[in-house]
């Protein structure tokens, strides 16, 4: 997708780091972006799928539209989890193709 077609009001966030500081930073970034009346698209993958076990993940997930929040199904399975984590739907269990969509759609992008 050409740059001019990307949504410059949407920040893509690729989350790979499972540390507690990452969780705190992610929540702060999402809150700041939304306060600025912008949008986010978040994808948890690799070891960061452990972050969806945070007690406040279900509350966090409600702040982002369903189509803009996903977890890598393969990473989730590889890390020993099964089923669907509390706070998301089965539809939000996605593949790495979702990460490609983030790169294509979002005008800005960060990795945590």
Structural account:
The protein is an alpha/beta fold. The protein has one domain (3-111): 3-Layer(aba) Sandwich (Hypothetical Protein Ychn, Chain: A), CATH 3.40.1260.10. It is 32% helix and 24% strand. It has 4 helices and 5 strands; from the N terminus they run βαβαβαβαβ. Strands 4-3-2-1-5 form a 5-stranded parallel sheet, with helices on both faces.
Contiguous helical run count: 4
Whole-number average pLDDT? 95
Q: Which structural category do the helix and sheet elements fall into?
A: alpha/beta
Second CATH tier, the architecture? 3-Layer(aba) Sandwich
Task: Count the E strands.
Answer: 5
Cα-atom Rg, whole angstroms? 13 Å
Oligomer: single chain
- Order of neighbouring strands in the sheet with most strands: 4-3-2-1-5
Q: Please trace the helix and strand order, writing H or E for each element.
A: EHEHEHEHE
Q: Write down the CATH class.
A: Alpha Beta
CATH superfamily descriptor: DsrEFH-like
Biggest beta sheet summary: 5 strands, parallel
* Poorly predicted spans: none
Task: Fill in the CATH topology.
Answer: Hypothetical Protein Ychn, Chain: A
Q: Kindly report how far apart the N and C termini lie.
A: 24 Å
Provide the number of structural domains. Answer: 1
The percentage of residues in β strands lies in: 15-25%
Shape: globular
Share in helix: 25-40%
Give the arrangement of secondary structure elements.
Layout: E1 7-15, H1 20-35, E2 39-44, H2 57-61, E3 69-72, H3 73-78, E4 93-94, H4 97-105, E5 106-111
């Amino acid at each position: 997708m050409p740059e001019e077609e990307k949504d410059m009001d949407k920040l893509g966030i690729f989350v790979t780091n499972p540390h507690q500081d990452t969780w705190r930073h992610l929540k702060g970034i999402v809150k700041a972006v939304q306060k600025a009346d912008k949008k986010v698209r978040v994808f948890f993958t690799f070891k960061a799928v452990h972050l969806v076990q945070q007690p406040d993940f279900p509350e966090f997930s409600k702040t982002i539209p369903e189509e803009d929040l996903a977890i890598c199904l393969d990473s989730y399975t590889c890390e020993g989890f099964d089923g669907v984590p509390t706070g998301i739907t089965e539809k939000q269990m996605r593949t790495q193709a979702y990460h490609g969509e983030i790169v294509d759609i979002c005008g800005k992008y960060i990795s945590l």
